Amino acid sequence: MTETDFVPETLTSDISFGKVTWKAPSNIALVKYWGKLPGQIPANASVSFTLEDSATITTLTYRKLGKEQNDFSFDIFLDDIPVPEFIPKIRTFLGRIERYLPFIKEYHLEIKTTNSFPHSSGIASSASGMAALALCLMEIERRINPELTKLYFETKASFLARLGSGSACRSINGEIVQWGKHPGINSGSDLYGTPYPHKVHAVFKDYQDTILLVHQGQKQVSSTVGHQLMNGHIFAGQRFKQAAQNIEELKQIFETGDLNSFIQVVESEALTLHAMMMTSIPYFVLMKPNTFKIIEKIWEFRKKTALHPCFTLDAGANVHVLYPFKEKEEVMAFIRDELVEYCEDGLFIQDRLGNGAIKIE
Ligand code: PMV
User: Fold this and answer.
1) pLDDT 10s digits, 236-273
2) Cα–Cα distance measured from residue 279 to residue 274, given in angstroms and rounded to the nearest whole number
3) Alpha-carbon torsion, ordered 248, 171, 220, 298, to 10 deg
4) In degrees rounded to 5, what are phi and psi of residue 196?
5) Cα(34) to centroid of ligand 1, in Å?
6) 211 and 179 housed in the same domain
7) CA–CA distance, 131 with 142 (Å, rounded to integer)
């Protein structure tokens, strides 16, 4: 589908009021998106695991205004408390999606949002948050036009979410999602995420993700700035090629269930992401000493046990420990005995592969 497929023909609404709630999960990229072109187009394709429990729940109440306003009319609350600091981001988002939901200025929107994970945990809430909001807004379009197919609804929700935060487009569907064109992956689009279309070995079906909260609080450099620093980055060209190769390798790995190769691709991707940050101009480091301690411990544990936990990282210091369900008991014992001491306040989040966003009736 192209951008114009998401512009509704004529859409005027006589719906005066409504309320809808969606829960959208966070996701963790295996092959990372880092660097973009104008219009939130990724510089390389990415593939992620959708999570189950780390999620945002958003309730949107929409009320028709007397006449169309010049500006967007909305209020935003986090845990029932107004969050004026979210207003610029939401306004920018609504501005970007207005062409595709031309009726939004006809409504006052009350957006009430809550995260299942602590706000200060350093877990990115923008992916789950933008996905949940996009799904709620699509619900207005569905009420105006009940003929919308499920596929169109989900694809457009992903398309809109991308315009809020790139990785949010991978938070609509489960369990493995790809975003971005890639010659080896059928159906990939730069405009929205799609469920991974190729064969996936059973070992990945119930993969676990234990998120170790190494550093809670604000990052010094936002991902928006990080993406921009890939423009003109001396390693950018090589990095984008490497990501494409890793997607190709992952395709084989998903098919065969080769966990050692999986570990190699996933850990290399995580370290490359941070290597790009450390070699940007200006350079920056988001990992903390405890991030490295955890990485070393995971490597030691693998050597000792021949089990398969591996790490990946987001744009932050927290560590996602990924492992197959059948190794959960041993890996969790290891996490409790040897890794929790490196977490701030001993905190971690137990999560796993999830099925995607759900509407809460
Ligand atoms: O969606 P953004 O703009 O917050 O960027 C996310 C970038 C990474 O989380 C580091 C990688 C990814 O693919 O999710």
Assistant:
1) 999 999 999 999 999 999 999 999 999 999 999 999 99
2) 9
3) -60
4) -55, 125
5) 6
6) no
7) 16
Q: Do residues 60 and 110 lie in contact, with contact meaning Cβ atoms separated by under 8 Å?
A: yes
Q: What is the pLDDT of residue 11?
A: 64
Same domain? 43 vs 155: yes
CA 166 – ligand 1 centroid, Å: 7
Please indicate, yes or no, whether residues 39 and 164 belong to a single structural domain of this protein.
yes
Residue 308: which CATH number? 3.30.70.890
Tokens encoding 347:
């905190």
Q: Cα of 101 to ligand 1 centre, how many Å?
A: 25
Mean per-residue pLDDT of the chain: 94
> Residues 336, 216: one domain?
yes
Residue 361 lies in a domain: no
Mean pLDDT along residues 14-42: 96
Q: 229 CA distance to ligand 1 centroid (A)?
A: 14
Instruction: Write down the pLDDT at residue 257.
Output: 98
* Ligand 1 mutation pick, 27, 32, 172, 178, max ligand atoms within 8 A of CB: 32
Q: Which of 152, 179, 196 is the last residue of a domain?
A: 196
Ligand 1 atom, smallest distance to 124 CA: 4
If you average pLDDT over residues 22-30, what whole number do you get? 97
- Closest atom of ligand 1 to 46 CA is 13
Q: Which residues span the domain enclosing 318? A: 202-352
User: Count of domains in the chain?
Assistant: 2
pLDDT in tens, 91-104: 999 999 999 999 99
Q: Is 10 in the same domain as 133? A: yes
DSSP H or E stretch at residue 93: helix 87-97
